[in-house]
């Protein structure tokens, strides 16, 4: 018996999202249905709507979610997951057998699991679930491995944000760049993702955390709430010169580009000290190109990395950061700027576009 719930879809490139009826099939083998309690609005949802990710329309949007397991399919061991469990949904349900998993690097898993069955429109049209999740919906069907159990005392609104943006930024700093005590770190773009990197760098003990954004509200928030020690207004100053000035003239040990444009990447590249690390976490669009002197790439040494999902391992990282947040050691709840309804996703995109929010969170 399938069930029909409300869900937010992007039907075609650039068209406003629509709140429609979505058919959720019963969970099949290794699948689970989750009653979604909260789902953050991530810039990646907007990339999907704009056709920037792929052409798999119609998309069921939403992928930064927490909720309660309603039912599980065959083959899901009760010790692993059972109805009533409070979970954060993840888009890295590791397979355990691919070449990355086999080498003990499951955070790079190349064959992650999603539900095998599609959710559909009432006319049977299959939906592509954003990042294999599709959680701007009352209920969603996922692979059981996409459900990561965390402390049920955590508020779903904030916990869900670890399911994508906050974890992506936090992990870019802590996992990909391996920021450690004493490092100097600059983060370009302090939306939900970049602010996660600011907070992650502070948590890891960086001595200098420079928040760079062209929106003064974001850099003020980075300083007041998320642990930035210095700020740079990208609209009013030369970012490279400003970061160098704040780091003894050398550049930062780690620069994280959480915007993902050629110009911000170039800033990150030159705002980095010799032998430093650049991490690209913002998602570029297919038309973007980068033109850098190869000699500078060689001559400056160090490492240029990109970070998918903060190189996180959900089973290891989500419960950890929920606990740190519960203990007051990580400002997870401060990422929630506003809560909105399922019918407000388009308005939330506009708020994000205006820079009014770190995260709007849809509550169900
Ligand atoms: N790598 C991953 O796993 C992953 C996961 C989630 C999101 N993302 C991507 O990360 C990026 C950021 O997502 P978000 O949700 O934080 O977006 P957002 O729109 O909330 O934030 C972007 C921020 O960058 C600032 N900005 C834009 N252009 C700038 C510039 N030229 N210089 C300085 N600041 C600038 C904006 O003012 C804003 O504060 C997006 O591209 C998103 O798709 C990547
Ligand atoms: Zn794998
Ligand atoms: Zn996301």
Can you give me a brief rundown of this structure?
The chain is of the alpha/beta class and 364 residues long.
Question: Any overview of this molecule?
Answer:
The protein is of the alpha/beta class. Helix content is 26%, strand content 26%. Strands 3, 5, 6, 9, 10, 17 and 18 form a seven-stranded mixed sheet that branches. A six-stranded parallel sheet has the order 13-12-11-14-15-16, sandwiched between helices. Helix 4 runs parallel beside helix 5. The longest helix has 13 residues, at 314-326. It is globular.
Overall mean pLDDT stands at: 97
Ions and ligands: nicotinamide-adenine-dinucleotide, zinc ion
Q: What kind of oligomer do you see?
A: single chain
Shape: globular
Write the layout of secondary structure elements.
Blueprint: E1 3-10, E2 18-24, E3 31-40, H1 43-49, E4 59-60, E5 64-72, E6 86-89, H2 99-102, E7 120-121, E8 128-129, E9 139-143, E10 147-149, H3 156-159, H4 165-176, E11 184-188, H5 192-203, E12 208-213, H6 216-225, E13 230-233, H7 239-245, E14 252-257, H8 262-270, E15 272-280, H9 294-299, E16 303-306, H10 314-326, E17 338-340, H11 345-354, E18 360-363
Parallel strand pairs: 4-8, 11-12, 11-14, 12-13, 14-15, 15-16, 17-18
Antiparallel strand pairs: 1-2, 1-4, 2-7, 3-5, 3-9, 3-18, 5-6, 6-10
The protein binds nicotinamide-adenine-dinucleotide and zinc ion (ZN) (2 copies).
Nicotinamide-adenine-dinucleotide binds at residues 42-44, 47, 164-165, 168, 188-194, 212-215, 218, 234, 258-260, 264, 281-283, 307-309, 352, 355.
